[in-house]
Amino acid sequence: MFKKIKIENDTWVVETPNINLYVVNFYNKQLCAWAAAQREDGSYTDSVWIHDTRNIDDFDAFIEECVKVANVCPECGKPVPFKEQRRVAFANRCCRECYPTLKSELERPGWTM
Most buried of 7, 13, 65, 78, CB within 10 angstroms? Predict the structure, then answer.
């Protein structure tokens, strides 16, 4: 179950349990989603890119796929709740086990977010 809120012509905020998705439709051809999770103190994590697709016909199916993708480590494929994942470099994310390796591959001295 989710709640879809249109905030501009082609942009929505989609509230799902534990994750808020920001969905943009580019030229009616490609949906892209970014996600942020609510922390225990009520603040939100930084948003990271989750998923995109071309020629989507079913918005609800796209949202379900985004939620599924958001809860898996993109590096090792292990199921990990989105808010337990670590942000790496600009818009990458991973589980705690993959974090040291991915950080060393993507971030260099002087790197800032």
Answer: 65
Report residue 54's pLDDT band, with 50, 70 and 90 as the boundaries: low
Check if the beta carbon of residue 62 is closer than 8 Å to that of residue 31.
yes
Token reading at 71: 């809860």
pLDDT digits (tens, 9 = 90+) for 12-52: 788 877 777 777 776 566 777 777 776 677 666 666 667 67
The bridge status of strand 92-94 relative to strand 86-88 is: antiparallel
> Left (φ > 0), alpha (ψ -120 to 50) or beta: where does 27 sit?
left
| pLDDT at 26 (0 to 100) | 67
| Sequence spans of domains, the chain | 3-106
